[in-house]
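So, could you explain the following?
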Amino acid sequence: MADTDPAGPVMDRDEVDRALARLGAEHEAIETSLLALQDHAGRRLLEGARLTGVTAERWTSTEAAITLLWTYFDAYTGVLRTAREIRARRRWSSREDLVELTELLRGEPVTVAGSAAATANAPTLHGGRAGPGVLSERHSLSSLVDRMNELYASSLDMVVAADAVWSALPARIDLLSAELHRTSRLAHSVGVRPGEHPAGDDLERITRTLTKLREQVVSDPLAFWKPAEGSSAPGGGKPDTTVYDREARALEDVRREIDAVLAVRQDAEKRIVRLRDVLSRADRTLAEARTARGEVLAKIAATEVPVVSGPPTALQEQLSTAAEYRRHAQWHRLSPLLESLEQKAEDELLRARESLTAVTAPLAVRAELRGRLDAYKAKVSRHGLAEDPLLVERYEKARRMLWSAPCDLRAAEQAVLRYQQAVAELLGAAPRVPGQGAGPDGHRGPGA
């Protein structure tokens, strides 16, 4: 027999023993991996689940790949067993034994028949298909190990990805659904219901979305898997939580809205009492303005006095509505109404105060003229001119005008100004009246 054959140079006994030791270690490692895959929780879940979509498609391929894996492994085991039996025939293997062992260990001793469909369905690492199948395959032990590693990696990738999604998302969805249920009950207790409040509509939409999301995650977990870019390791990636995160944020927004409504429920009585007080002060101020307007019309002549409006009945009606909402626990309606009323009540109080100021302005002008007249009289007395006939005459004239009713403010102001001018002339200084040139008597002060 020649020294070479299709398997290459004949191996010696040491090479055979080393090859058998290496193949035995590989066999043990492969068997351990296959058994772990067989017992993987994700594989068992996939096997018993009603799958849809991309997960159903890939699981069909993965099942075929796992079946082919065991077929390859059984063939590998058979060849290894045969090689070990040949080596165990005698301590010092004959040349015929070594030739046979060389053929087994280095040649293509493994023929797998009828595996074309399984090979065609077997997925690659990221979900693609293997090359076109053939009716039978011939493999060396090393190429068979490479093929098993490839099929194992693609199968494990699919199983780990599905298991990762199932481990992460359904439990989180259930927790969020429980929180959604608590929030919905609380919302119902404060009158936040679908069709009556936007937050109620949001809760209804979130409920529908989470129910549908859980169904999709359970039946098609790979639809919610994001492979890691550039990673070839089985299970490289993470669950896609985009929809879950969006609904979690939406629920948090609703919770804040419900908290705001709850806050209204807690301090509604205080706010309504405060509103009544503000509107009452506005009413009293308007009543005071109406009284003051009658006094002004009686005491001041030749002036326009603004009309004072009545109390705002619309605000009182809205306040009664707010109290009704509170009695019937319609907090979701009470909240925006109170906010609107609080601003309107403050505006109404400000308007009432401005109305009182505008109405009493003529009385303020008369009081200022009286004060100015008395101040100049005191000044004249300090300079010993209190008995001056001109000053006495002009003072008495201005005084009669300012203390008579009705008072003509324009004439009284001119009388006070003439008195000031006379005082200034006697004291040697012109009156400092802004915008005033010559007085009624034609006199002009220095610097005019």
Confidence is low (pLDDT under 50) at residues 1-6, 115-120, 123-132, 430-448. The chain has four domains: 4-161, 167-263, 267-359, 362-427. The chain has 13 helices and eight strands. The CA atoms of residues 299 and 406 lie 4 Å apart.
